[in-house]
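Entry 12.
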Amino acid sequence: MTYPASGPVTLRTNLADYPTSRALKAGAVRSDLVAFDFCGPKVTNQGFKPMVRDGAFDAGELAIVTYLQAKAYGKPLVLLPATVMGRFQHQCILTPVARGEIGPKDVEGRHVGIRSYTQTTGVWVRGILQHEYGVDLSRVTWVVNDDAHLAEYRDPPGVERLPGDAKKVDQMLLDGELDGAILGGDLDDPRVRHLIADPRAAALAWHRKYGTIPVNHLFVVGRDLAEQRPDVVREVYRLLLASKQAAPPPADGIDFHPFGIEAHRRPLELVIQYAFEQKVIPQRFELDALFEDARRILGA
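Predicted 3D structure (tokens):
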């Protein structure tokens, strides 16, 4: 992709509606240098696969585990230290009420569904199960609907791929065909309950223990843009930060949208560890290597 050597640029962008992106998408935060064509799909994560496989966007949000895989497979993307979506994850694993009073350790020897084995929420939840509850992840059968965003990746042993015409794992959970499921969205139904008791309290305890939050989606730009127009990338980062600052402060005082390289050190160290342990990425990455381009472009 070739960009004008100077002057304004319009970027094909995939970005969902969040409180922290509202000012940017509404035009309350704007720039004479950068305009955004918010042309991503209505369900933003459906744009992740075309972004990493086909370069469908100049810029946009990307699940952090998808980025780590893209880095491993040499995709031309540059990670910015800007989280656009973060949240606690303890509430994302559910189990049928009909299974009785099973807890996290009881998923060993059972079948747990998830949309894709490489889904960022799944990496966080499995890491929590392993490190906080002593679950042997190799003793769980992970039942999945979808492949990874990266075409090069192959699921490890212990992952059972459903045929394309099969039910989605959330419906299988409701129908009692799975012992549990990790879901990215909310599922409020009397047939299911949280596997982790009082997930909010458990998440707050995790937050105090690690001093961080689980980040989900960070912002990335294409390498061509970063190399040809670093001034545009600096402006994109400024606009993202200004949009965050225009949002109401979090009600609980926990910042789920860190900005800056050092603010990302702890959460990225954890998710890299979890992804490597779970055979989602073939190698560990150092934080400074992930943000080498960002540091060069943005400065300290």
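Annotation: The mean pLDDT is 97. Residues 16 and 178 are 31 Å apart (CA to CA).
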